[in-house]
Amino acid sequence: MIHELFTRLGFLFRRRPANDLDEELRTHMEQSIESKIASGMSPEEARRQAGIEFGSMEAAREQSAGAHPRSWFGTLQQDLRFGLRSLKRDRGFAIVSILILALGIGANVAVFSLVNTILLRPLPFKDPQQVVWLEPAEKAGGLSGSTYSSDAYDDLVAMNRSYSGVTGYFAFSSPNNMKLTGNGIPQPITGIGVVPNFLDVLGIKPELGRNFLPGEGKMNAPAVALLSHAFWKTHYQGDPNIVGKAISVDEKPLTIVGVLPQSFDFGATFSPGTRVDVLSPFSLDMGRNWGNIITLVARLKPGVTTQQASTEAAVLFPQFYNNKKYPHSKGDYGPAVATAIKEHVAGQIRRSLYMLWGAVAMILLIVCVNLSNLLLGRAATRSKEFSLRFALGASRSRLIRQLLTESALLSFFGALLGIGLAAIIVQWLAHQGSVALPLLSELRIDTTSLMWTVLLAFGATLLFGVMPSLRVTGGDLQSQLKDSGPGTSEGRSHDRLRNTLVVSEIALACVLIISAGLLLRSFLHVMDVDLGYQPSQAAAIALDVPNLKDEPRYAFYRNVLSEVSNIPGIQSVGLSDNLPLARNRTWGAPRIKGVDYKPHELQPTFIYIATPGYVKTMGMHLRGRDFAWTDNASSENVAIINEKAARFLFPNGDAIDHKVMQNDKEIRIVGVVSDIHETDVEASSAWQLYLPLTQGWGEDGAELVVRSTLPADTLGPTIMQTLRKLNPGQPAMQLRPLQEFVDHSTSPRRFFAILVAAFAGTGLILACLGIYGVISYSVTRKTQEIGIRMALGASRDVVLRDIIGRTLQLAAIGIIVGSIASFIVAQSISAMLYGTQPTDTTTFIATLVLLLAVALIAGYLPARRASQIDPMAALRTQ
Q: By C-alpha distance, which of 374, 370, 390, 371 is closest to 484?
């Protein structure tokens, strides 16, 4: 018993010799013959019947060997070797197929990596699903309208029942707001002030050192900081002993207490498109009288849901004080909502990412359709080979397995090359710092992306490999063996299949092109928006202002403007504390003295504290007069307002020379300017109030604006030299064209529109190749038929028209199907359109003309070749 068991187990792992197998098969056949003779058959008939039962010896050998548990591995090796030899013989086909697959798979992997990074992969926090973003239920007024005061922060900490920790950061830090000093020319860096428990609440541990301590957020506490991982690597070469050292920032010592982990990039998560170098503790007491300055983030207690937290926030926030020094400020805030941090970071672009994912999936479908057509054509040329193998005993399943193995090899090599292509795309995207997409710098190909690649390769194998395999092995292989010359017709069903594939390619390309057209037209409409100022030929640079007060400070500004205006090529100069589409702030709205307004009737007003010349330099349309240097502390308070505020405050007359109240001061309106877009090119304008810097309103920074026909790169060094002459502490700032601010604001829309357009162009090229391949193959296969028609009197023009007509017919069907599908897709992306209707006639007609033109070009080449066929040579073709 035990001996028999071990014998059977040994059989599982022992390869049977071929002669043993042949001897066993012959024995079984002889036994069958003897049995039939015993039943009364003649020896000849018994042998014939046994032969029918067993089939050929080769087929029986394969069937018997296939029953062995190890046979699948040997068969796989045979199929792989045969597949590699087959692809090597047909190098042109293999190279084209692998390249096309690499394009489709690579693009899909790159886009999936983007989707995975932004939408699917958890944020690098501890239990990130428990972290929420707190903001007003109804947002208005830019940053000031979505942030809270220090007193409101304290009230939330004391009164909430939903959070295990509440934190936040100072929302009004601007890029390059600090300077690294003590080592030659000051270098600009970007720092963010955070509530000391910020990293503890998020659950982030430094790679080196420690987090901030509670006492380090108090006024006059020792200055400490945490370095970002990238800043530590680039500026300090990853010095492991950096912790405890002091660096000079803004001419003051700053002690490094830690280095952030590489997995956490503050800018990528909380301020997309901004590089953040340093985190420092923010003093709530220092900012207690600054109004709304804190962006709130909190961690939910175990068991508390986001909905429960939002319900509590709707009740609590209206009870908070804006500033407890002013009792009437209680109730300044409306209801707030708690949003999962991941949803806040990525929710606004979720639809765009899914649209991009769908577009790249269509590219892979087009690739698979193209390869199916290529494989059908290649299999047709191998019909005699398959017929011979079938006649020699190979089963249909074995032939299908062999063809699928060849398809799998194409997918494997295409996936390998595609991974390389995806790595290049991902690396490029990750370094697009000017694109305001969250987490873009964290983009990488990770394990999930590699698993997605495997899934894509497997899916592609099934999509383009199964149908040709079944089609080729599904006919009468024996009849193909008898007649498989070049003139053999493959039947109308074969033509219908190939035509259907071409139609589907054109339909998919049509959907891609129309979608891309709608997005591109939307982007062009965004770029045509009247910004209220002229960004072209204007540029700005941040000033470092010496620690001066009042008149000496104003004298410094006047001196800067005077010196810069004398630079050759400068047409005008001005200065403001904030710029459109950059950092912003709002105050309470101006009002007419003695007029009672309904609650929420007045809008939060964007404040710009500016010098004479700023309005002109920005290219705004001004009615009335600009500020003058004589508008100072001893003169009447004056202001300039925008058209929107003027229309509301003075509906029955001109606002110029009328007075309004602002911050309990009476000010005279001396000018009215055009409405500008403050925060977003696509958002409507709000109220804007311009105040003279020289009247002590308290500027929040200083941005020097110049207008010149010279490029910013040419003008920048000269301006920097002038600024350093006036202030040696001026850091090496860059003169940025105002168009860069516009481009940054529109960068997400541009990013998605360009990528979809690129995919649409790729789909168009693939569809063109598909049309060309099918028509060219049809011409080759019907050479004799065309020769007969021409021999019977058909002219070359008739042949040319017939083939082009067939091409355009296929294109028309594909366009009709694609247009219907495009209408459905366009409705689903209507929320992403701007100034463009989903049924935009121009886009649909342009796509129709484009696809017909491409189909005409793709069909003309094989049609011209067909019209030049020599009838006699075609009739002699075998």
A: 390
- Helices 57-66 and 71-89: crossing angle, nearest 10°? 120
SS3 per residue for 756-807? HHHHHHHHHHHHHHHHHHHHHHHHHHCHHHHHHHHHCCCCHHHHHHHHHHHH
- pLDDT given for residue 11 in this prediction: 45
Cα 357 from Cα 364, distance rounded (Å) = 11
The CA distance from 336 to 318, in Å, is 8
Give the DSSP per-residue string, 436-454: --TTGGG----HHHHHHHH
Contact between 686 and 606 under an 8 Å Cβ cutoff? The reply is yes
Calpha distance 293→306 (Å, rounded): 24
- Provide the β-strand partners of residue 691: 609
3-state SS assignment for residue 749: helix
Confirm if 223 and 252 have CB atoms less than 8 A apart. Answer: yes
User: Which DSSP string do the residues of 589-656 spell out, in sequence order?
Assistant: PPB-TT----TT-SPPEEEEEE-TTHHHHHT--EEE----TT-STTS--EEEEEHHHHHHH-TTS--T
List residues bridging with 689 in a β-sheet: 607, 641
Residue 533: helix, strand or coil by DSSP? coil
Overall residue count recorded for the chain in this entry? 878
**Taking CA 708 as the corner, what is the angle to CA 703 and CA 714, rounded to the nearest 5 degrees?**
90
Amino acid sitting at position 751: F
Q: What's the rounded mean pLDDT across residues 262-291?
A: 91
* b/e code 227-251 from CB counts within 10 Å (16+ = b): bbbbbbeebbeeeeebbeeebebbe
pLDDT at 784 (0 to 100): 66
pLDDT above 70 as % of the chain = 86
**Is this model's pTM higher than 0.85 or not?**
no
Ordered alpha helix ranges (H), 223-277: 229-236, 266-270
Residue 600: how many other CB atoms lie within 10 Å:
9
Token digits for 810? Answer: 């296929």
Q: Which two tokens stand for residue 376?
A: 């059908």
Q: Are 877 and 784 in contact (CB under 8 A)?
A: yes
Inform me whether the pLDDT recorded for 76 exceeds 50: yes
CB 707 within 8 A of CB 572: yes
As a whole number of angstroms, the distance between CA 701 and CA 687 comes to: 21
Instruction: Tell me which DSSP letter residue 116 carries.
Output: I
**CA max distance for the chain:** 133
Closest among 233, 179, 181, 244 to 210, alpha carbons compared: 244
The rounded distance, in Å, linking the Cα atoms of 249 and 339 is: 36
Mean pLDDT value across the chain: 85
User: Between 163 and 487, where is the model more confident?
Assistant: 163
Core vs surface per residue 764-779: b (16+ CB within 10 A) or e: bebbbbbbbbbbbbbb
SS (H, E, C) 33-77: HHHHHHCCCCHHHHHHHHHHHHCCHHHHHHHHHHCCCCHHHHHHH
User: Can you tell me whether residue 103 is helix, strand or coil?
Assistant: helix
Task: Give the pLDDT mean for 207-219.
Answer: 92
**CB neighbours of 709 closer than 8 A, spacing ≥ 6?**
537, 569, 571
The residue among 676, 54, 45, 107 whose CA lies nearest residue 419 is 107
Per-residue pLDDT for 518 more than 90? yes
Distances (CA, A) of 552 to 555, 637, 666: 5, 20, 26
DSSP string over 404-472: HHHHHHHHHHHHHHHHHHHHHHHHHHHT-TTS--TTGGG----HHHHHHHHHHHHHHHHHHHHHHHHHH
The per-residue b/e assignment along 358-387, b for 16 or more CB within 10 angstroms, e otherwise, is bbbbbbbbbbbbbbbbbbbbbbbeebbebb
* 75 alpha carbon, distance to own chain's centre: 44
The Cα–Cα gap between 402 and 739 comes to 59
CA distance 160 to 304: 12
Say how many C-beta atoms besides its own lie within 10 A of residue 10's C-beta.
9
Is 355 within 8 Å of 833 (Cβ atoms)? no
Give the torsion sign (CA, 53, 58, 59, 64). positive
